[in-house]
């Protein structure tokens, strides 16, 4: 019968005075902290291979935390930005938080809600190819919940001049001569007088004769 030597375990060498730590094996199992380089643009669940001494390798699986501000789609990122009603109508600029720096974004006049603005090259670095993704901004118009008397008068005067209203506007009626406000607000009359002084003089004379 043939069997492996119980002392040398087939290595053909016997350690007479074995080490108490490795018990003569020559190696020990130890815990060691290593610094792992995180590649730019790494995605959630992606595994990266790292070389170690003695021709060993370490496989690291990354778990990327979610952001409360950015939404990721591959190398592209998405954010929502709220603008005022006047910015949506007249245009302007707004400062947006970016990945690497704050960005000043141009708002075009007549911007609709949920319109998207694409900033090329402002996204995440692509891991498997060259370049960067894009930063897509979704515009959301913030409608004021409360209006002052003057603000309401301005909107009412605008409603009188609007020609494509789908339905009716509260406080504005359609007559044979056009739309007219029924609130009787002095501010509305003053705005109307500035926009159309001829009709204002006629309406003022009618009030005096009445």
Automatic annotation (TrEMBL):
Keywords: Chaperone, Metal-binding, Repeat, Zinc, Zinc-finger. One of its GO terms (molecular function) is zinc ion binding. GO terms for biological process: mitochondrion organization; negative regulation of apoptotic process; protein folding. Gene3D superfamilies: Heat shock protein DnaJ, cysteine-rich domain, Urease metallochaperone UreE, N-terminal domain. It comes from the Eukaryota. GO terms for cellular component: mitochondrion. Residues 28-144 form the Chaperone DnaJ C-terminal domain. SUPFAM superfamilies: DnaJ/Hsp40 cysteine-rich domain, HSP40/DnaJ peptide-binding domain. This is Protein tumorous imaginal discs, mitochondrial. It comes from Araneus ventricosus. The lineage of its organism: Eukaryota, Metazoa, Ecdysozoa, Arthropoda, Chelicerata.
């Amino acid at each position: 019968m043939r069997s492996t030597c119980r002392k040398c375990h087939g290595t053909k060498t016997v350690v007479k005075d074995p080490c108490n730590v490795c018990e003569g094996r020559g190696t020990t199992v130890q815990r060691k902290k290593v610094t792992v380089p995180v590649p730019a643009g790494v995605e959630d669940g992606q595994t990266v291979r790292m070389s170690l001494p003695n021709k060993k390798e370490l496989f690291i699986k990354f778990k990327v935390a979610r952001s409360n501000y950015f939404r990721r789609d591959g190398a592209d990122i998405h954010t929502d930005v709220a603008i005022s009603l006047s910015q949506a109508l007249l245009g302007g600029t707004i400062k947006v938080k970016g990945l690497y720096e704050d960005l000043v974004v141009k708002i075009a006049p007549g911007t609709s809600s949920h319109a998207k603005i694409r900033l090329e090259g402002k996204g995440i670095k692509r891991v498997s190819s060259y370049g960067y993704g894009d930063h897509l901004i979704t515009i959301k118009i913030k409608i004021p919940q409360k209006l002052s008397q003057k603000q309401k008068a301005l909107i009412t005067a605008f409603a009188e001049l609007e020609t494509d209203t789908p339905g009716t506007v509260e406080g504005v009626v359609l007559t044979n001569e056009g739309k007219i406000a029924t609130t009787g607000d002095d501010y509305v009359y003053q705005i109307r007088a500035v926009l159309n002084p001829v009709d204002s003089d006629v309406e003022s004379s009618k009030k005096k004769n009445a």
